[in-house]
Amino acid sequence: MTKTQNTKGNFNYENVEKKDKNFMYQNFEKSNCYNCNFSGSNFDYVNFRGARFKSSSFLKCSFKFAEFIGSNFKKSNFKSATFENTIFDSVRLDNVDFKDAEFINTIFVATDISKAKNLDIKNSEIRIYEEMPQIEISEDLKNVTLNALNNKYVKASRVLDTKDGSINLLSIMILLENFDEETLIKGLDLVANELDRDFYTLSYIIKFIQNMQ
Question: Which of 87, 119, 143, 167 has its Cβ near the most Cβ atoms within 10 Å?
Answer without folding.
Answer: 87
